[in-house]
Here is the input.
Amino acid sequence: MSTPEARLLARVALTWLTEPGTWSVHRLVDRLGPVAALELLLDGGAPEERLRATVAARTAAGDARAVAEQAVARTARLGARIVTPEDDEWPAPVADLRRLALPGASRRVDLETAPPLCFWVRGAWPLAEALDRSVAVVGARAATAYGTHVATELGYGLADRDWTVVSGGAFGIDSAAHRGALTAGGLTVAVLACGVDRPYPMGNTALFDRIVETGLLVSEWMPGAEPLRPRFLIRNRVISAGTRGTVLVEAAARSGATQTLNRTIAVGRTAMVVPGPVTSAMSVGAHELLREQPRARLVTGVAHVLEEVGRIGYDLAPVARTPERPRDRLDDEAALVLEALPRRGALGLDVLAARAGVDVRTAMRKLSLLEELTLVVRRDDGYALAPTPARRTTGTTAGGTG
Amino acid sequence: MSTPEARLLARVALTWLTEPGTWSVHRLVDRLGPVAALELLLDGGAPEERLRATVAARTAAGDARAVAEQAVARTARLGARIVTPEDDEWPAPVADLRRLALPGASRRVDLETAPPLCFWVRGAWPLAEALDRSVAVVGARAATAYGTHVATELGYGLADRDWTVVSGGAFGIDSAAHRGALTAGGLTVAVLACGVDRPYPMGNTALFDRIVETGLLVSEWMPGAEPLRPRFLIRNRVISAGTRGTVLVEAAARSGATQTLNRTIAVGRTAMVVPGPVTSAMSVGAHELLREQPRARLVTGVAHVLEEVGRIGYDLAPVARTPERPRDRLDDEAALVLEALPRRGALGLDVLAARAGVDVRTAMRKLSLLEELTLVVRRDDGYALAPTPARRTTGTTAGGTG
Here is the structure.
């Protein structure tokens, strides 16, 4: 029986030997476990000619196990961590990629859509928890002022309602969505197509720094990996599968963003599209999708998005295993009081009791408990939610290299 | 057996006694003919209490037959005409209103949707021919610059491809659609909710004058009739049924334009919606329709509209009886040559033959024939379509008071 460390190293070596998403590798790992799968591949025993050639080319360039060891060390130095399916914070819903099949697929990026082997993660929140209530907002890099405005509003509105905003960290729509979420003081996750140490594009460095502080940078590629063109398409399947739904804000005709939405539908998540002026080239792709894809839903704002992602009976999907948080230990009345607190600002005891639907005496008792748990603070103007550090405690303790 | 004149007078009297669209009147006319139906009503023999009360109130105010005679005389003085189902130019497709049933209807305007008894028409084209290849473009009066632009482009593009542009003559989207069609030198029809002698709104008088010159003003109400509020909704069913499809360009939330589109769908025509910026209040109604009405098709321009109205197998619908036009007598090759001519400008013989897919000798022979039929003129720069008068000849000969 292999050790957790050996299995982690094997997964890292496998992601270096072959691109993420390769079905034959996924099936080998499923059958043999990562350690034996790696051994088989390194011994030239890959079941497919093409995979054997890929592995041979890679091993000619370096020792997969040594590369993996260096990658793990580099990850630790970065303050990042590697998350594998064996970890508590592994986002279980990405396993739905097992059933992803794109009709009429012929390109490698459309065919090789297997679930990830592992994730590199930078940021304090446990990955599964961050993705539990999440919506992706994606779209054109060359966004218009209209698209940027709409994406910012969506990012803000979703984060303000405690939904995680997931996107790809690109210029344009992606950046606007991340920024909107950050402005709302909410959680945002950038899923990258390169190493988490050198998030692409460079011009978004300040944005990525802010995301790391309060949210997450996530990648299937090891530190130092370059954002090669096909990797964006490979990455997109994680955005689709890792969230409850994906909203497309702006897209040119036949763009990559429409391809993300087709993955979203194929993996059983909700595909949403924001229309725009028909005079705008940047909305042509959005309108194409609405015309040609009967399962794409037209949405015009946060209310529609929440209606859609609330509708799909997500509870039937595999429940992500998340670490326990202080608020999970609350009794019903304390939870009501906590829910009644505004996201920003404070409320007096009477108003708070009324909003929570409990009597004032109960509210007072529960607020004491919530203060002890550092979830609530008493201020001159009333009771308020504690600043985020209290909510991030669980995140930092769950850190490490998986 | 009554005379055509008596039947015409009876229909006019019936439209004055009761509002157009009243089912009980339609059924009476169907069963007894207009003359006997009028007699029955004037004798107090209406089959329904409510209809009897309506007729009694009207007859207290005047003599229906005398009013009808005055209306016919006034129509002739105006240079307008009355068109009834007995006339060649009656647009047969409006009979599809027989099958119109609006789910959940409770208001009078939603319930009383029977086919028209007669139309008042101003303009030279035969009504049926004008509506044969027609698309309605409707929308908000308080249109934005965006909506006005889109409606103008649609009006222009449809007219440029020889489609008649139908709308309601209102400010905003309607006016823009009419103007676009006029700019393209095409045919446009304004279906009014008042007399054709005093088209509403007054501010559009110059536009209505231009429409009368080359297109049509149409109404179910006699000259002098006022544009009462419910009449716009009653009128809308004619716009829906008289065209092959209706395009909604801009509409506020829960607007009257969305109601037109529900009629369009209920009567079996194609309902099309142009999306807009989600930040615009004037596109809220359009997006509502696209979200809630699965049969509403998103269109972004003329190409999409033509795809939709070409798709519905309109040939299966009752064919409008149209007077024969010179071009109907053409053989296949002559028709090809005629089709190959540009809407504006001229072409040389060689280019024309190539576009038509016939040899030069054939093209020359057919062009002589087309010249004789006054469909084509030879100019210094080549062959060109004859100016509109040649095409309007059939219209003026079919004029008169029906």
In short: The two ends of chain A are 19 Å apart (CA to CA). The longest helix of chain A spans residues 145-160. Chain A has three domains: 4-75, 97-316, 326-397. DSSP finds 18 helices and eleven strands in chain A.
